[in-house]
Write a structure and sequence with these properties.
The protein contains seven helices and 14 strands. With 360 residues, the protein is of the alpha+beta class. It has a single domain, classed as L-amino peptidase D-ALA esterase/amidase (4-Layer Sandwich). The strands form four sheets. A six-stranded mixed sheet has the order 4-3-12-11-10-9.
Length: 360
Amino acid sequence: MPQQRARIRSLGIVVGELPTGPFNAITDVAGVLVGHTTLIYDQPCVARTGVTAIVPRNGAIADDCVFAGFHRFNGFGEMTGIQWIDETGLLTSPIILTTTNQIGMVRDAVTEYGFLRYQYGAYYLPVVAETYDGWLNEMHGHPIQKEHVFQALDSARSGPVTEGCVGGGTGMICHDFKGGIGTSSRLVSTDSGNYTVGALVQTNYGDRKQLQINGVPVGREIGFDIVPHPWQEPPRSSSIIIIIATDAPLLPVQCKRLAQRATSGLARIGGFGHNSSGDLFLAFATGNHITEPVHGIIHLEGMLPNDAMDGLFDATVEAVEESILNALTTAETMTGYQGHTVYAIPLDLLQQVIKRYRPV
């Protein structure tokens, strides 16, 4: 009987040194909500896709904006709304993750959702990001409809986050194993205060041979002779979207610095930002409240000293690393479009490999 899918820590494999939050998820950052809509069916088209919504400020993000920063590790991908964030440093909408071919429709649905819920154009330039799921999902069938976007936003909640083959990660592949959505968090103590850093990833990148966990060459040990290669011909493109949240009082340039550190967490697993990969990272900070008055001056609650940023950098690296691994270990084997099958990483073999290299 196959081993039940589980998060990486449930397998006895601990990543990093910092403590996690109570949910070990991006929702450990107060006010951050996550919702999914998952589409898995075979008629009228083969759907293995969905939508994941990350909603800051308990949904009040349009009126109570957050500072944010963006980093492009490699740009063969799309994330809408970034020009406005780059210009102003403000995130004013939820963040939606989905499939490549429907990013435009999903973006339009978010703007309509904002108007219907708030009676004005709340989300003029929403952030919507994509990775390609065309190996398992019949993308040209356009299975996602605006009601699915509305469902993901309406279902967004705090607490534990469902991972693996859900939402925008339903049809994704990671290091030639089944991938998907993963999340994690870290608690940081600095001289300026105690803070939480959370990450959520949509994984669709990586070669098997480059996968490593805590320095162990897992991908080489669990080769294609053990778990078959999913491709007839390996695709040229692969991508990962990384979203980072913190309750620290950061300014936009500091959020950008935090987003850059996601690169180190990705590299520790074996992601190198290849030429045809879309590696797009966004960080936002809820520690300041930015409600723009018509007249007067905006008074911020503070700014974390740059000397105190190292702890948040460490937390980001660890949270991103563990998020990717949670996506791998919770995702299940899936068969989809044209009978393509992508196999989940076998958890029993993973535990054996780790134990052989790092005996307790």
